[in-house]
Write a structure and sequence with these properties.
With 222 residues, the chain is an alpha+beta fold. It has 2 domains: 81 residues, Murine Class I Major Histocompatibility Complex, H2-DB, Chain A, domain 1, CATH 3.30.500; 96 residues, Immunoglobulin-like (Sandwich). Helix content is 27%, strand content 34%. The strands form 3 sheets. Strands 6, 7, 10, 11, 12 and 15 form a 6-stranded antiparallel beta sheet that branches. InterPro entries: Ig-like_dom, Ig-like_dom_sf, Ig-like_fold, Ig_C1-set, MHC_class-I_related, MHC_I-like_Ag-recog, MHC_I-like_Ag-recog_sf, MHC_I/II-like_Ag-recog. Pfam families: C1-set (PF07654), MHC_I (PF00129).
């Protein structure tokens, strides 16, 4: 979301609205000088959520007076005093709607560009599973990934395991990437009888990364 610095054309638009506002203000405060603030809030979001991809909200002194979004595709007044603009300029609402439809397309391109750049900056993890000799602890270690958020879980015969699991803090690497490890305590006997796997999920991966836990004190790396 951002507040736009208005061009001369946009300032003219603001002036049209302020003419009505000044008239209203003067009728209420005839003997005092009053300062008002006008703000337009434009928001662009990615598709796929229950919210319009583009909205504009116009406010004067914190009160909403116009509204537009990509679903209704029309600028609509939200207060009675703004309706007086169309008395002097019958084409005002149609013209403003067309401007916002153009701004909507500009925002869509901008959001798409930002998302492409964000996706290009993701780095998948390198992962390994290992167990030290005679230790009941199996370690699943993911490193070199970006961004920071990652999920590491365990499965036993394809069923999720939540007990005897220690999830360590995500730590930074010197190159700006991150690392994280999860430790599973399991007996040697249980490890031989069942199939244990470490499951890693990260936004850079098209699908889950699944690593089988070795049956002996060795290491598997992907």
């Amino acid at each position: 979301m951002r507040d736009w610095i208005r061009s001369d054309e946009e300032m003219a638009r603001c002036s049209e609205v302020l003419k009505v506002l000044i008239f209203l203000t003067c009728s209420l405060h005839l003997s005092s000088s009053v300062t008002h603030s006008m703000q337009y809030i434009l928001t662009g979001v990615t598709p796929g959520i229950n919210f319009p991809e583009f909205t504009e909200v116009g406010q004067v002194d914190g009160q909403q007076f116009v509204y537009y979004d990509s679903n209704i595709r029309e600028m609509i007044p939200k207060t009675e005093w703004i309706l007086k603009v169309s008395a002097d300029d019958p084409d005002y609402w149609n013209r403003e709607t067309q401007k916002l439809q153009g701004a909507q397309e500009t925002f869509k391109v901008g959001v798409d560009t930002l998302m492409r750049r964000f996706n290009q900056s993701t780095v998948p993890p390198t992962a390994s599973v290992f167990q030290k000799h005679s230790s009941p602890e199996v370690v699943c270690h993911a490193t070199g990934f970006f961004p920071k958020t990652v999920m590491i879980t365990w499965q036993k015969d394809r069923e999720d395991v939540h007990e005897d699991v220690e999830l360590r803090e995500t730590l930074p690497n010197q190159d700006g990437s991150f690392q994280k490890r999860s430790i599973l305590r399991v007996s040697a006997e249980d490890l031989q009888k069942h199939t244990y796997t470490c499951v890693i999920q990260h936004c850079s991966l098209g699908e889950k990364m699944v690593l089988d836990v070795p049956k002996g004190p060795n290491k598997l790396q992907i």
